[in-house]
Design a protein that fits this description.
Layout: E1 4-10, H1 16-27, E2 31-35, H2 48-52, H3 64-75, E3 80-82, E4 85-86, E5 91-92, E6 97-99, E7 104-108, H4 116-121, E8 124-129, H5 132-146, H6 151-173, E9 179-182, H7 188-202
Parallel strand pairs: 1-7, 1-8, 2-7, 8-9
Antiparallel strand pairs: 3-6, 4-5
Length: about 200
Amino acid sequence: MEKIVIGIAGGTASGKTTVAEKIFEEFGNDAVLLSHDWYYKQHDDLDDEQRRRLNYDHPDSLDTALLVEHVKELKKGNAIMHPTYDFAHNRRTDTWVRTESAKIIIVEGILIYTDSKLCKLCDVKLFVDADADVRFIRRLSRDVNERGRTMDSVINQYLGTVKPMHEQFVEPSKRKADLIIPQGGHNQIAISMIVDAIRKKLL
């Protein structure tokens, strides 16, 4: 059976991961989920402070070519070994995770539609939209409580790179989406409609 690739993009803390996880949970063993965040480039040549100053919201910060190859392998029915990432220390871990192929391949990340090869691999392209103030508050809460960041560092990063990169790369990529989902993971009606549409594609 032909594999279906579902792309889910959106701004930082827009709820795209929640949407991706809810769709993934609906299909169980028939789905696999890949996060673009796992593919941040390795910077072993830099110390902790130098890594903190990098721009993580530019497309060049990610090894998208590797993600493209992994999606292609999953579409062929092959398993992959994907990297993992430690956000507290801004570096890849030594752990690579084996992921088997499935009928539905879900790929989520803020910048997935900025790469033409990855964008073309997506059979269904979703964009999760949320108000900028809401996204900032969510990101601030997440990075302080879950990633060990200070409030000042989150604010400085948001103003220095997150917001300008969103305006330059993420927001324009919305035009490539087949469907825009407002309210993120709270939009149960939109998620249910998407799940139904995917089920029809599998028939």
